[in-house]
Write a structure and sequence with these properties.
Blueprint: H1 2-37, H2 41-59, E1 73-83, H3 86-99, E2 103-112, E3 115-125, H4 129-136, E4 142-152, H5 154-180, H6 184-216, E5 217-226, H7 241-269, H8 271-288
Parallel strand pairs: 1-5
Antiparallel strand pairs: 1-4, 2-3, 3-5
Helix pairs in contact: 5-6
Length: 295
Amino acid sequence: MSVMRRVVLLLLAPIFIAACAGATTQSAGSGSRTDLGAPAPAVDAVKSGSAAAGNAVQQGIPNPIVVNPDRSVILTANIALRAKDPWATSDRAQAIATGLGGDVLMLNQSGTPDSRSASVTMRVPSARFGDAINQLKQLDGEVVSSAVSGQDVTDQFVDLQARLTAKQSEEQRYLALIARASTIDEILKIDASLSNVRTQIEQLTGQINSIKSRTDFSTIVLTVSPAAVLPGEQPSSGWDPAKTFTRALAALGTMLRVFADFGIWLLVFGWIPLLALALVLVATRVRSRPATPVA
């Protein structure tokens, strides 16, 4: 019986080993397929970033610069649009600026009804800079060019604040000295130094306030030009009495100006041919007068 068991075990051992090897191979294969099917997070991030950049390019205006809130940055944007009615577009841009808590620094609207152009310089809170850009790109028209730039003034701002703190400390020391001064000469010298320090404090305070104002509010310059007429879009050729009357008045004014110019030229230079004609007549009469016979 022991011999038979050994024979049976020897026969079953290869089958058992093959089954175990197949199960191991299947497990390894399924694991490798799982790793390949799941995308890497880094790849997803790159793809999402590329998609966002592509959307920004298609929209025509670059995404606002990402600014560290701990830094002091002056943001500026320049946007050029083409629109059918530049004046109306500039009016809507003004409404956007005021609606976001900003103001309009400059507005220039020029041109004729057929060819108008406009330029708007506005300021918006830096916290709403991105909202302003997004709303401006939704205006009617085509984006021709756009640029967003930032100037980091953190170092300059920190330096001015440090100098201001030092001058304020110096002011306190002079105040303490002037309180202990015992002679008029000492008081006058300390007062002169104190006045100089206070002047520097006012100058530093003005520079700090100027930088803070430029960082708290961002500047956007919007230029709107008339949209070009496409070859397939010809202007309406319907009869317009008002335009015809305007052109007729313009032609009449041009004709009257021509007649007036001719009259002025005739008045200034007309005597020259008359003088020449008079000289010719006098010479003719002198020649045609008969000679007097000598007695």
